[in-house]
Design brief:
Receptor-associated Protein, mainly alpha, 78% helix, 3 domains, 326 residues, 15 helices
Amino acid sequence: MNPILIGAGVLVLLILVGAAISVRRQNASVLDERLERFTDFSSLQAFDLPAEGNKPKEKEPSALAERLDSVLSKREFGKNWIIELARADLQLTVGEYFSLHILAAVGLGLFAYFILFPQQLVLAIIAGAVGIFIPRFYVSYKKGKRLVDFETQLPDILGLWVNSLRSGYSTMQSVEAIAKEAPQPSSKEFRRVVQEVQLGLEQEKALAHLQKRMPSEDLDLVITAVNIQREVGGNLAEILEVISHTIRERIKLKGEVRVLTSQGRITGYIIGGLPIVLALFLGIVNPDYVGNLFKDHFCGWPMIAIGLGLIGTGTAVIQRIVDIEI
């Protein structure tokens, strides 16, 4: 049988399995999701309460999936995964996230073995090792994008909060107004705070969950001010107004620094990615030419290892130089 057809069939199968995992998670019980709030780690997992008349059907997960989630959630990396998935706002359990790592590694490895680098087992294994990190890259991208969007919206959110307080609203009523009026992802995060308080959680714990889902220094300043005002009193509207002005100035300064360091960041990306892209291109166009490098076990592989190490070190140093804390 044609190896290309075999590889394509395996890839289709992996895609279908991944889609089934996603659908299974979206059909999870709403009651279970509500009760998960009061556990130590699952309370951080992202979800939306459905509108009336549009409730999903309950579907019990398999015993194997429950066992896998239970085992992984007790591990240190599993606890970190729960927090990362909550920050990325992805509807996945720890077991499903672990399965995606396996699927990505096997899928990319088979794709490299049958199509990208035919019959090259070593390169297929390397591609499979790279595939393990694909889900993490995606989660990191989603998490970073949501955090940037949230921090950009925060000054406007504080302005709405201040106006609500001056109109006579309480703190939680102001948060509820933010949940209704603010854009995504801020509205979803503040809506979760309101829902957690309505389900019986203390305001401090609900805000602490918000801080864990959105690890922003500016948000930490806001939550600290709200908690202190709750304990000792004071004019919260004036405090939030001062914080809003400070955050706006910090965002403006961060934008200026990012523009000034853009050339250095792009240089790091080009220097780090160009050798790898060129090697992949040559491997596709002229496999025999690049293949000599992998056949020489005494010289080729050490050269590859040293080259990758130097590329990684140079990229890390450049990113460290242009990463200026404000």
